[in-house]
Amino acid sequence: MPDVRLASPQGRWILLTTVLGSSMALLDSTVVNVALPRIGRDLDAGLAALQWTVNAYMVTLAGLILLGGALGDRFGRRRIFVLGVLWFAAASLLCGLAPNAGVLIAARALQGIGGALLTPGSLALIQASFHPDDRGRAVGLWSGFGGVGAAVGPFLGGWLVDGAGWRWVFLLNVPLALLCAPIALRHVPESSDERAHTRFDVLGAVLGAAALALLTYALIEARAASWAVALSAVAGVAAAVAFVVVERRGKDPMMPLDVFASRQFTAVNLVTLCVYAAFGGFFFLAALQLQVVVGWSALAAGTALLPTTVLMLLLSARSGELAERLGPRVQLTAGPLFCAAGMVLMLRVGPGASYLADVLPALLVLGVGMVTLVAPLTASVLAAVDTARAGLASGVNNAAARAAGLVAVAALPLLTGMGEEAYRSAPAFDDAFGPAMLICAGVLVAGSVLAFTTVRRRPSPDCARPECRTHGSVLTPPLEGDPAS
Hints:
Blueprint: H1 9-43, H2 47-75, H3 77-97, H4 101-129, H5 132-162, H6 167-171, H7 173-187, H8 202-220, H9 227-249, H10 263-293, H11 298-304, H12 306-326, H13 328-345, H14 355-383, H15 390-415, H16 426-454
Helix pairs in contact: 1-2, 1-4, 1-5, 1-7, 1-10, 2-3, 2-4, 2-8, 2-15, 3-4, 3-7, 4-5, 5-11, 5-12, 8-9, 8-15, 10-11, 10-14, 10-15, 10-16, 12-14, 13-14, 13-16, 14-15
Keywords: Antibiotic resistance, Cell membrane, Membrane, Transmembrane, Transmembrane helix, Transport
Subcellular location: Cell membrane
Transmembrane segments: 12-36, 48-68, 80-99, 105-126, 138-160, 166-188, 200-220, 226-246, 267-288, 294-317, 329-347, 359-384, 396-416, 436-455
């Protein structure tokens, strides 16, 4: 049984290193969007390259995050966590030194592999190290400090882009890693799962990532209407079918498909796909709209987006408490509708927009909606499966949210007619931004209807309960438990 106490020096070191590790990934997911216009200008890249700058990271992270948790259970959680931190730092260094868009995109894909190793590991280390009496508080502090990192991300990213330059958005991860890894090696006890199998679903992970990459390529490059696009779409569908077959027949599948035998679990994940597709598309386009069309600096744009994260940090725990009293259906129905209203309000954000009159009201309504739905969404995922599979359920839900976001980033420019040079032209980008917000709002309304018609009023009394009460990420739901379990 783990016996480290939170109040001990070792306990504080463990908390520090896990917060540093998870903050690297959280910071990276929030700051890059703010840097995109400057990256495009400096590297003379088109809109497709900016989409890939976001999605190359998400493809490998979403495709491999479940495998990352399994590797930690088998080979040692600390070992895999440290490997992930150092891998992430090396890939970040390559991003910061990238001479062109191609190298940057490849480095971002490598970064996603590091993120898949360290993201599940940071929470697993806390759960494997702390005494059961302190674990809940340790998880709460970890998620709270991680949320603060997510909140600081857009502000810090904008400050770096306007000052030292966009490359420091990535180079900042290197000193964080050089601080995090030695602390982990010195103070974090090694742990593993004796029940973990020696076989890993590498084929499933490769097929899942390949399906996401090929379908994303087809969506981003569809403007060209070439044979390569058609072939990649067909190959992506084939890889997705092969992934399902492998997961169904494999002895140790990365994502056991029988978890979807629960209609409730399937329904909640469909709601997840709707809401996080809208969120991923919104935060990708909003950062560009504020800089390209409104004319704000990267710092102003990043700071402008803070209210959503701040509201999540302040109110997510209370939202979870409310969901326990009311049941999740009410909030999962109302939350997406608030978010849809916030995106419709973003239609007011154009040339000469005022922050107080136009931008802030939209972000506040959006933030209220996110606060309303995220906590009960996580609780519903955990309640839909046996307690022993709560970690797996959370990992699948987290991966689904990431996959939804990357598909939205790939598809929205295509659906709204954005050309390769759209982000260089304020009128062209503004013309496409409005329809994109309406599409996002429509997807959120669909998620609300789905939640109302499929989600149970109340979960069973003996189901798993969320440990991460405070959550600050606007792009993914929180991880709960060990995603490999």
